[in-house]
Amino acid sequence: xxxxxxxxxxxxxxxxxxxxxxxxxxxxxxxxxxxxxxxxxxxxxxxxxxxxxxxxxxxxxxxxxxxxxxxxxxxxxxxxxxxxxxxxxxxxxxxxxxxxxxxxxxxxxxxxxxxxxxxxxxxxxxxxxxxxxxxxxxxxxxxxxxxxxxxxxxxxxxxxxxxxxxxxxxxxxxxxxxxxxxxxxxxxxxxxxxxxxxxxxxxxxxxxxxxxxxxxxxxxxxxxxxxxxxxxxxxx
Length: 236
Prior knowledge:
Layout: H1 7-12, H2 19-25, H3 29-35, H4 42-63, H5 69-80, H6 82-91, H7 102-106, H8 113-131, H9 133-152, H10 160-172, E1 177-183, E2 190-197, E3 200-207, H11 210-235
Antiparallel strand pairs: 1-2, 2-3
């Protein structure tokens, strides 16, 4: 008699052949450290990141033949950033199944974007090892295609601060720095944010809140960095 599917397997629509892989994908380092478990999900996360990147790249490349390399790079970055991965993980109920240490549990680790994103990548890596690329790709398409479509239609709020942070770290090895100025009376404040990467001013934005101004500055900087990346690629 086959074993019962776990809630996560039901949400994913798959059944792991190797239970050890499923367990490893859900084992955060804080739990492994406290329980003296030799395996964490970090190696699977490394693998899953590559599988996710390949499948999303393949999907958008085939689906949007009219889009330039720079546009495809933006689209991929919007799908594989921490914020989007954490959203997908929440929809799957992944936070409830991750094995966490007591300290991480008490500090709200079950809803921490970085832990959720890493766990989702680890689960994808585990599915790839357990079942192969085809089932892993089918799952990724099911989870991410609605978001890809919405992004292309211009729907949904995009977290440009996170996307910029990841692009800057990848391309320049540096983190963005924000400087915010405010003016006006309390009831009518206007904020202006300027974002710098490696000492270079890349974007500026204004808004009614600090967050809004920083997001607008990040969007401008992100567009500029993406154009720079595309130009460099076309030169080679």
